[in-house]
Amino acid sequence: MGKPALPEKRAVFATLWESSRGRFHEEAESATRTPFQRDRDRIIHSSGFRRLKQKTQVFVAHEGDHYRTRLTHSLEVAQIARSVARRLGVDEDLAEAMALAHDLGHPPFGHAGEDQLDACMEAFEGFDHNAQTLRVVTRLEQRYPNFDGLNLTWEMLEGLVKHNGPLITDGTPVSALPAAFRDFPQLERLELDQFAGPEAQIAALADDIAYNNHDIDDGIAAGLFTIDDMLHLPLVGDVFRSVRIEHPVLDTQRTVYESVRRLIGLWIGDLVAETERRVAHHNPQSAAEVRAMPEPLVAFSDDFDAQQRALRAFLFERMYKHYKVNRMRSQAKRVLKELFELFLAEPDILPPPLRQDAEQAPEARRARLVCDYIAGMTDNYAIDLHRKVFSIEGIV
């Protein structure tokens, strides 16, 4: 049996834990873990990470145990990120930590919840889940005696902020960024006009690989479309056909599992091949040179990206805009809108100590406190709380 081709040493452009720029609050180093392993562990032990278990990926968490939640999605992204990081010879622990943390800022009910909170906060500088992730790890997690947040390394914070690319391009002022970014006093020290390091870039595209392929699984399981509906798609249709030819009597579930497994392998293979091509072309000699490149180092090939867009268009029409999903989105938006308006108008019904802070705060500050409170909720908690505060049966 052949062995997988793995690099024997770290790539020259990998982020080196020995050269980490450190943390914004001084702490003694761990005797047993690298700084990035410590970051990963802090994410895993955080309250925000635990709450991902009941936050929507596409389907509301109580719709069924089969479907992905933000937690299971984050674990799948982390597995893919580690695999790619290992192939490319960069820091697996940092890539994994980025993947585990990337959705910490998501509110309940997925993108429907984000859209609604952004609408609720329109007069108060809006809501953005990526910016909220930074807020969670630098302010809202309160576990340590000497500082708020998780005190993650510089490399983790800059990766979380810039995993989708530079925040400042073509002279964009910092004042144009979401408020939750600007509230972080060290924001401009994160080199906002450059790309993130290679591990953060890997985590961002591992996210694409995970949701592209696992949405296929969840969509078929939910009855929103069938295998036959996907056969016209480039690449995806070819893989499903090949599994059917090789295993003509295989049941639907195993056919889906085998096809998705193969598709993930193809996605990873293309990502690694295109990234290696860019490494050969740009020849970066450090993670700093990766950040300063004129384009991302980690990427899919143009041909593969085109096939990926065809799948995304199919899923958008047949899954994300399906009437059953739209009904869930509509209900979710009403729940969050009504909770937000109630708590903003009546802060005295908020739990302590949030109540005291909100009652004494000007309206804009109160709105942000209410937004933080709602964004941290799970799907189930938001549904139960809505029932309690709006139903006479909820009076206790």
From TrEMBL:
Gene Ontology biological process terms from the UniProt entry: dGTP catabolic process
SMART domains registered for this protein in UniProt: HDc (SM00471)
Entries under Gene3D superfamilies matching the protein: Hypothetical protein af1432
Keywords linked to the UniProt accession: Hydrolase
InterPro entries reported for this sequence: dGTPase (IPR006261), dGTPase-like (IPR050135), dNTPase_2 (IPR023023), HD/PDEase_dom (IPR003607), HD_domain (IPR006674), HDIG_dom (IPR006675), PHydrolase_assoc_dom (IPR026875)
Entry's Gene Ontology molecular function annotations: dGTPase activity
Family under the similarity heading: Belongs to the dGTPase family. Type 2 subfamily.
Protein name, as recorded: Deoxyguanosinetriphosphate triphosphohydrolase-like protein
Provenance organism: Henriciella barbarensis
